[in-house]
Here is the input.
Amino acid sequence: MKIMLQKEFLWLFLLCFTSIIAQGQNEKVIFIKEPNTTLQANTTYEFTIGYVALTDSDLSVELSGGPSKFYAGSKVKVKKGQGIKKLTITTNKKPTKGKGYKLVLSLRDVNGNWKTTRTGQVISNIEMVKQAVSFSNNVTFSPLLATNISSNSKYNVPVSYITKEPIFIQAAIWEGGKWLASSDRIKVMPGQGEKQLQINYEQALEGKNYKYSISFGDKEDFDSKSYVTKEISGVQITKAANRLSIAEINDKSIQVSVNNTSDILILPSATNYDYIKIITLKGKTVSESKNSKSINIKNLPNGGYFAITSTNEYYKFAKF
Here is the structure.
């Protein structure tokens, strides 16, 4: 059965950029064309990689493992910002045939090592074969996967898949090397498509040391734990915002006066808030500022509003 992957990878990466900007400029790296999970043993491997870097960095790709403990890698310096690079791994000898190879893509500090990795992707249990490979079953993280999220009891992991046979897919969330929870294992039929896996985890989470993984393979692969696993690190989870009703917010709020000659609302605080959000009396967020104790209200229509801060303080004011 011949299956063609019809998505335009560059378009997806640009869509990924839009998602990242909406998330607050989280760093990210992604294979523009996802590698096969079965590779022909060779001396040269070329990868096209997209990245978002918040500072000058090293972009690195490494291939390792297998029966002979093979290792080869390549890296390039990239400037702060976003872009697409081609990295080529060249080696004097071919990796030997077999399973257990690992491909690691990472964004690191300049001249750093794996310990300075800030975000990355890992594909584990790649198989090397002698003949050229045109297709292998594959599951990938969607470019729209959110990696800057607030703590919740449910975490959604969107994935894309393409397969010649029925396979199972499962997602998990990790804190460093510690497994926290997994989604249900779902079965998909031959073809290509998208699924959203849901991970339930009631305990509150907060920090930058989290990662998602997706595992896929047939029943025998899961029984023998020989399935392919992909990981994406650099997942940042922030403290969950309090969810109060408008009546509760109104009850908790402190009235503040607005200087009608100024376009800036200044809140009474000795230090900056991580964020200030302005919401309407109906609960709609209409403005936000970060790392400040003031917020511009020039463009707000006249009326009543609430100002909600990152320290769970609530203020109400009216603009005339």
In short: The CA atoms of residues 21 and 75 lie 25 Å apart.
